[in-house]
Amino acid sequence: MKSPITSLAVVCAALVGACASAPAPRAASAQLAVGMAGDATSAGACAELPSDARPSTLFARQGAVASVENLTGKDFIGARTWAEKPTGARIVLAATPGLNVPWLERVMSCRTAADGPLGVDGARVDVRAIGGGFAVDVTAPTREAAREIQARAANLVTASR
User: Are the C-beta atoms of residues 45 and 37 closer than 8 Å to each other?
Assistant: First the structure.
């Protein structure tokens, strides 16, 4: 008869092995590293997209951009001290027939430098459905890039009206 400790060790070893070999779960919304048109990152995403299906044309459609808000994070300076830092912008797109998260992810991954906030080097995009539309979060790893994303995103609201 096996001792309870031996049985527990066998179960733990089996669980650890199963967890190590299992693929990581996919998040509900995908985060994309946005590649410039012509890069290997965007070559597959850009193939067979109509020429008017680019972020710049999507953002410019009348009424497409419902709102833009700045995203911020905390930059910890000490144990109890922090300062807000810019991380990017959330662009809320109005729900439109034909728009869905997978299509928007594909369009957002196919961009050029002319595509507003998506044209900032190092930009990352997270697309998800929200009530009445879609949230496109464009973030960057540096303060300078995040500020540039925020400035370009602010121009989208007036361009879409």
Answer: no
Q: Quote the number of domains for the chain.
A: 1
pLDDT tens column, 8-60: 333 333 333 333 333 333 333 444 444 443 343 455 557 677 766 777 777 87
Domain for residue 14, yes or no?
Answer: no
Residue 121 belongs to a domain: yes
DSSP for 32-101 reads: EEPEETTSHHHHHHHTT--TT-SHHHHHHSTT-EEEEEEEEEEEE-SSS-EEEEEEEEEEEEEP-TT--H
- Which domain does 48 fall in, by range? 29-159
Residue 98 included in any domain: yes
Tens of pLDDT, residue by residue over 97-121, are: 888 999 898 888 876 656 689 889 8
d(CA 43, CA 109): 9
| Tokens at 21, concatenated | 């070999």
> Mean per-residue pLDDT for 55-84?
85
